[in-house]
Amino acid sequence: MGKTAVLLLGLFTGLVSLTLQAISLGTEYWFEATVRNRSLIRDYYNETVLELHQIPVLPEKRGLFSYCGYHYEPNTSSTQVPSSSIDNFQGGFNPSDVVVKCVTYNFTQKPIRELPGVGYYRTLYYLDRSAAGLGCIMLGLQLCGVLTSWQAAWTVITVLFTDCGTMFMFGSFMGLTSLLLVLASYQYEINERPSVLPQFPEGYVLDYSWSFYLSWASLGLCIASGIMFLMVARQWHLEEVWHKKSLEEEKKRMPQQRYSRSKLIPSF
């Protein structure tokens, strides 16, 4: 495959990687819950109301910047309940008491100390905030890499190709770290829930969703794009070195050719 084809493929994969990362960060489908036994959801909320004044929310879906959860609100008008909530709770729970609310994370406000299981929530807070921050850094590096790659393709400057590859590779490192933090946050949330909080119902399963897999696809394309730009930069550098060396050798041969020709000219 020639360097032109590699360059075009790198431009395409870099742009697709940027698009996928932007979509994954902007959506809340990193995790999505499935409810297999709806009566257990009812029991969870009934028991929690008796034990705690502040009810821990069961997430319906969750992203890096927002989440949607099942909220227990007694005597709520049924007109305020989304249709999805009514469908989810037709098996024995009064839909007028449950609403699905979507909330944006406030990373400037830590969990209060009076909250039951505050250490658990603070750990999740730091993991989620770090994952979101590193994801945004990856997106910024991808954007800079895409813009620089188009400039490099237009001007054909070797150092710009090197810069593109470096940006994409650093972005990949940030994205990988962000995804590992997301994995750690998920495992901690599911497996390290303190005893002071009610455990998740048996029929409630929180699992990865399509936004999470989009971010992994973006990471793979980002790595591929970075490697391709570094390959193009190396190939262009080798051609520049070879061309420069050829010119130097040509200059060295020029005086010798002139001297040899002068000896052939007869003198009068």
UniProtKB/TrEMBL annotation:
Keyword Transmembrane helix: yes
Keywords in alphabetical order: Membrane, Signal, Transmembrane, Transmembrane helix
Subcellular location: Membrane
Membrane-crossing segments per the record: 131-161, 168-188, 208-233
InterPro entries: PMP-22/EMP/MP20-like (IPR050579), PMP22/EMP/MP20/Claudin (IPR004031)
Membrane topology type: Multi-pass membrane protein
Signal peptide residues on this chain, from the entry's feature table: 1-26
GO cellular component: membrane
Any one Pfam family match given in the protein's UniProt record, by short name: Claudin_2
Name used for this protein in its record: Uncharacterized protein
Organism expressing this protein natively: Strongylocentrotus purpuratus
High-level lineage: Eukaryota, Metazoa, Echinodermata, Eleutherozoa, Echinozoa
